[in-house]
Each structure stands twice: as structure tokens, then as C-alpha cells.
Amino acid sequence: MSRLLPALLDVLLVLVFAAVGRRSHAEGLDVTGVLRTALPFLVGTATGWLLASVVLDSGPRSLAWGAVVVVATVAVGMALRALAAQGVAVSFVVVATTVLAAFLLGWRLVARLLPA
Predict the structure, then answer these.
(1) Which 3 state secondary structure label does DSSP give 24?
(2) 44 contacts 73 by C-beta, under 8 angstroms
(3) How many CB atoms within 10 Å of residue 84?
(4) Reduced to 3 states, what is the DSSP secondary structure of residue 86?
(5) Nearest to 37 by CA among 47, 49, 27
(6) Could you tell me the residue ranges of all domains in the chain?
(7) pLDDT tens per residue, the chain (116 residues)?
């Protein structure tokens, strides 16, 4: 259970990122569309979790873990979008990196401030 909640929170926040992006571009918020948009980034998130679990001694609530997840989420997500001929404009990469870092590192920063 100690890893389940952080993993679910990361997945939820990637889904929120995808939904907000679709909404801001008037693409609709249907479940299929949000999942299609989120899928490359979710693969990246899973990759980040796998990588962090192999290379880090810290747990999933640590900022180091979150940083690995952010980098993998963006890098793999953008690579998969490029392979699928979806948009990977520099401005999108910057916005995605900023928002995903705020989301995926933000909850970890908040968790550090709360009593254990």
C-alpha cells in the first residue's frame, strides 16, 4: 500500500494534465479522448517508476523519485507522441514539462510539509 497511493496520485495528475490540455484546446473531455492524450505520458510515468525503483534508495514520496518520474514522463511521452506523428512543438514541451513538474513534484513537496 505504501507505493500504491503515490502511484495512483501520479496517474491521476497525468490524467488531469491531459484533460486540462484537451479542454484548453477545445478537444472535448470524453474519457476515450483524455485516455488517448494521456497514454504516451502514462507510459512515461510507468517508465519513471520502474527506473526510480531500480536506481534510487528513496521511496516514491521523495523529490528525487518525483524528478525521475517527471523526466521520464516528459521524455517518453514526447517520444511516443513524435512516433505517432502527434504534436511535439517546443512550446508544448515547455508547457508539459512545467505543468507535469508542478503536479508530480508539487504533491511530494506538500506531503513533506504534512506531519507523518
Answers:
(1) helix
(2) yes
(3) 12
(4) coil
(5) 27
(6) 4-113
(7) 588 999 999 999 999 999 999 888 877 778 999 999 999 999 999 999 999 999 999 999 999 999 999 999 999 999 999 999 988 999 999 999 999 999 999 999 999 988 86
